[in-house]
Amino acid sequence: MSRQQLVISLPEAAAMIKDGNSVGIGGFVTTNKPMALLREIMRLRTRNLTIIAPPSSMEVDMLLGLGMVEKLITPYLGAEAIAPLGPFHSGWAGKKFSIEEMELGTLVAGLRAHAMAVPFIPTRGVVGTSIPSLNPTLRYVEDPFGGPPLIAVPPIEMDVVLIHASQADCYGNVQHLGATFIDQLMAQAGKKVIVQVERIVSSEEIRRQPENTTLTSEYVDAVVLTPYGAHPMASQNHYRVDAEFIKEYVRVAKACVKGQPELFEEFVTKYLDNPHGHAAYLETVGLERLFSLGEGA
Amino acid sequence: MSRQQLVISLPEAAAMIKDGNSVGIGGFVTTNKPMALLREIMRLRTRNLTIIAPPSSMEVDMLLGLGMVEKLITPYLGAEAIAPLGPFHSGWAGKKFSIEEMELGTLVAGLRAHAMAVPFIPTRGVVGTSIPSLNPTLRYVEDPFGGPPLIAVPPIEMDVVLIHASQADCYGNVQHLGATFIDQLMAQAGKKVIVQVERIVSSEEIRRQPENTTLTSEYVDAVVLTPYGAHPMASQNHYRVDAEFIKEYVRVAKACVKGQPELFEEFVTKYLDNPHGHAAYLETVGLERLFSLGEGA
Amino acid sequence: MFVKTKATAKETAAVFIARQINNGDYISLGTNLPVPAAGVLLAQMTHAPDAKINVLSYFVNLAGIESFPDLGQIANPSVARWADGIMSVEQLIYGIRRMDLCFTGGLQIDQHGNTNLIGIGDDYNNLKFRGPGSVGTSTIMANCHKFFIYVHDHSPRTLVPKCDFISAYGWGNGGADSRSKLGLPGEGPKYVISPKAIMDFDDVNKNMRLKHLLPGMELTDVIQSTGFDLIIPEHLEEFEPPSEIELQILRERVDLKGYLRENKE
Amino acid sequence: MFVKTKATAKETAAVFIARQINNGDYISLGTNLPVPAAGVLLAQMTHAPDAKINVLSYFVNLAGIESFPDLGQIANPSVARWADGIMSVEQLIYGIRRMDLCFTGGLQIDQHGNTNLIGIGDDYNNLKFRGPGSVGTSTIMANCHKFFIYVHDHSPRTLVPKCDFISAYGWGNGGADSRSKLGLPGEGPKYVISPKAIMDFDDVNKNMRLKHLLPGMELTDVIQSTGFDLIIPEHLEEFEPPSEIELQILRERVDLKGYLRENKE
């Protein structure tokens, strides 16, 4: 018998996400976001999703704008100095979708609790803040050593987790070759984990520096080859964030929440619905533009 | 102003450990043990130490044999198939030194609690075992979500932590280039951290693959250059365990606990007290022997 | 490149921050805070070459670099080029107890140094404005040794008597024991830095207090721009203005694009 | 190299273990357990090329290797040569909930599958024999899906009615709910494997029960070598002996040094 290969196509990957699923999105703010996977899911308009993400940006805003999200759990939605975003900042929150108020240290504790198979991890991180009263999943827990009570964060689990990384072998051994942010914790808490990569390399290449492996095949269910797959976000070692693209999106999203959905719809048609597949998307963006995103001086 | 360099000599490093200190020892069983640092401390016969170590071997046994240890906290003392060891297995435990019964998952939880600055981390790992009744630092904690109670592991902190790694720059950025075992957690819980390395490399070499850095200078107080410094233990990427040397030690240690300390004393004189410095120790072992420990077929 | 014009208020604030940093301090830089970032970089390039700086997951030392390309995009994988190491966010968060200095901003900052990045309004499910979220500020500010609050907009809308929501706890309802009785390990907010002034907290009741006016700012304007009764000390300390060398480094190596020289807040 | 002699008891035990493993199982191998290690490697080289194996911090796949050099030294950085990844022990421990199969040994194993690596004696501070310690077995056996216990020495000294100390919890004082009422996520010990026999546990009271005699072993010897009343089923299942190919792979690729062919236990 030979080892099973885990490489699948984008449509096969997107079909793994069902209406009502909880979906984790890796990366951090505008870096290493699994955009190709998300675009494929957005094309399908999968509905009633619970989105769980570390600090996030345009990718989550688009899911909200397309009406695909029932509940949002993220400590941050923005795009640093590039721009504030659309739907999340508007009156949609609490009405078109619900928010389970989250903070990064608390999210990490919840993912950690899942990995450790314990009913909670205690934290002082949100003691005294409004978060315990805004997030109904949190409880107080006594300190058996006599100190003041802490907040108990219960395990967080997801149906599917989507990750973007530099490279993987066909067996699902993944190397970020840079920051992993909370991708490893997310993957540990995912019932299914799909990783999109800039390139697929040989098993021997992975084994050349096994200490660089960030997710072993234990944690990976499928690998999808998506060069430039994080665009318009940055992909570590590969290309920078396409700030102009995000600004364009922010313009159409802002118009949309002000009741003028036409530009948003045009954007969605142009970049999501019309391109048949990831390669066609990249051609729509334009290769020259993509090439210009390499690291500068 | 220029950056401060952290490279010091072995005697300077050993002088950082005082009588009565709690000392953490990195590595795992017979791999990546900071033997050169420990030999230097053993030469000084620093006393009343509390030793905290992940699965450990001859290095801890020698500290016990030399009467330097007041309290031992380790989940394992042995040497896998090589041999059972001396004092630990004898009637010395509980008499010449005390044991705070520990388990690896519990140790990790305690180190984690320290790093997270919480009074405890809950675990089910030792529920039902004898460990909660043997280790007075553990408490029961209620599950605020209604499940059965768990064991609360309080923070573990150490005065000094000793680590062995492949390489570091002179500013204290360390790369193991392989397994880190629990070295990172140990370092996070050390008030002072001393790292011995096979080689010191340039800052530029470290920055070539910053994702390989396992301890940044935040966690490192001193770096000591000790080629072959893990001998007789294995040093990942460098040399294998010197099983014959460990067997020799086990023979003399066993004789010692049976009331015949002569061979043990000879061993201590030959390998610890007589050699003036690390280079002299390596010459006593013999370079041909050291060279033979390279990776085989 | 260096033009010998007077320091702007933001440049002065950055110099203030730089001077608070000791060589060897471990400092975490968050997103979207160019003034604190400039202060930390200035310190690193002058008296604190051993300051340990993390930016997201990247542990960088910038003491020897020629210049930093874009202060507005510091949380960016491009900083990996100067990284001594890259750590997971979890390792970062669990190293907070070692952090000497961190920064946070806020939609609202109240008189006791609590900050709000959650949203504005009385009804959580019907906010007037939804904020970006807490990021990691709750956990970081609870645990790090001390933190500074940066206010983009010094106005009664931002500096309020009481935050609508609290994302990072400062001194709660006031009082020097308000943190210790909750078990929070960190020493709490030390300074509040705005484009108009630098403020600290009264030792006893932990109410916000004016410390320095920034260049070109008027005391009456600062009082009127603050939505609560700022404590005004009898004797307002003079702040030693930025030196020529500090300004030169700021302008030629730290802030090439002039974020701190723009007039807009 | 392959000599067509009959399978030894240890080889048969390894084959039994191999046959319990499903392709794709996630398996953790501890130190100093050559028989379980041989079983796992045999499975990987036959029907389980996708079994995910970790040895300490090394995540290896050995499906395609020519041979494994030293079964007695499996927990050794030399295995890094076949590693797909290297993880910290913390990551490993926190991935236990995903582990399908783990192994533990013991100085003592009791009739309910509790194991003792701590020590022998009534008085903890005056033990007759101090054991090596629990390693990570308490946490791993509490959480992994199922585990097998390997007994080096099948004797009344080792297989005891009640352990002096418990390092890894099996079925406590017996009863199918003894784990769930403590909240332990794992399904507990499934088999006990000695050089004489393979045992499992009664479904209801979780008392240890004989399942197979290993080649050359006598029932009366097994009964006398067990320090408690082993349940003897009316009808003892026949174990399909190792096939020629299983033996060949064991001897030529897995166990070149013959750990499983030695007579000593």
Overview of the structural elements:
The complex is a heterotetramer, with 2 copies of chain A (297 residues) and 2 copies of chain C (265 residues). The longest helix of chain A has 15 residues. Chain A is globular. Chain A folds into 2 domains: 228 residues, 3-Layer(aba) Sandwich (Glutaconate Coenzyme A-transferase); 36 residues, no CATH class. Chain A contains 11 helices and 12 strands. In chain A, strands 1, 2, 3, 4, 8, 9, 10, 11 and 12 form a 9-stranded mixed β-sheet that branches. The model of chain A has no long low-confidence stretch (mean pLDDT 94). Chain A is of the alpha/beta class. In chain A, helix 3 runs parallel beside helix 8 and helix 8 crosses helix 9. Chain C has 265 residues and is of the alpha/beta class. Chain C has a 5-stranded mixed β-sheet with strand order 5-10-12-13-14, covered by helices on one side. A 4-stranded mixed β-sheet of chain C has the order 1-2-3-4, covered by helices on one side. A 3-stranded mixed β-sheet of chain C has the order 7-6-11, with no helix packed on it. Chain C is globular. The model of chain C has no long low-confidence stretch (mean pLDDT 93). At the B-D interface, strand 4 and helix 4 of B face helix 3, strand 9 and helix 4 of D.
Main attributes of the structure:
heterotetramer; A: 297 residues; alpha/beta; Glutaconate Coenzyme A-transferase; 9-stranded mixed beta sheet; 3-stranded antiparallel beta sheet; 11 helices; 12 strands; globular; C: 265 residues; 5-stranded mixed beta sheet; 19% strand
In short:
Chain A is of the alpha/beta class and 297 residues long. In chain A, 31% of the residues lie in helices and 19% in strands. Chain C has a domain at 9-103 and 140-150 and 169-215 and 234-254: Glutaconate Coenzyme A-transferase (3-Layer(aba) Sandwich), CATH 3.40.1080.10.
